[in-house]
Amino acid sequence: MITLPRHVRVHAYAAPADLRRGYEGLSALVRQDLGRDPLSGDLFLFVNRTRRRAKVLFFDGTGLCVLCKRLDKGIFASLWRDSSRRCLALTVTELALFIEGSELVGRVKLSPEEITEKDLAITLRR
Question: What are the helix (H) ranges across the chain?
Fold first, then answer.
């Protein structure tokens, strides 16, 4: 199990991806289609058309890593319901649930919003 801090951003590619792609191919999708930097430390989730396989691309500070998962039973949640969106933002908790096969990811907000400094300032004034 890999544990990640809550502030790590997860970007789910909101279209079926060709998971025959490796490091360079997935990095190209991140740069060209999402307009993001694959070396940013963010995680990038890709799912194939049949939704039985998923890959997560991330840079750990020394190199690119790809984590792969194939479900033996069932399928992953559909992240591309809204065809106008290129990317879906997930929390680390939602990514973990997605990888476990939860079908609620992408349909229902599963994690509370991140607390910001502005939220703390309002709370302290009261």
Answer: 23-32, 92-100, 117-125
| Whether the Cβ atoms of residue 70 and residue 53 lie closer than 8 Å to each other | yes
Could you list the mean pLDDT of each consecutive 10-residue stretch along the chain, which spans 126 residues?
75 92 94 94 94 94 93 85 76 86 63 65 58
Nearest to 71 by CA among 52, 49, 48: 52
CB within 8 A of 59, min separation 6: which ones?
A: 38, 39, 40, 41, 65
**What residues contact 111, with CB distance under 8 A and at least 6 apart?**
91, 93, 94
**Given this model, what pLDDT does residue 36 score?**
95
Give 44's strand partners: 11, 57
Q: How far is CA 23 from the centre of its chain?
A: 16
pTM above 0.70, yes or no: yes
Q: What is the pLDDT of residue 11?
A: 94
Q: Residue 97 has what DSSP assignment? A: H
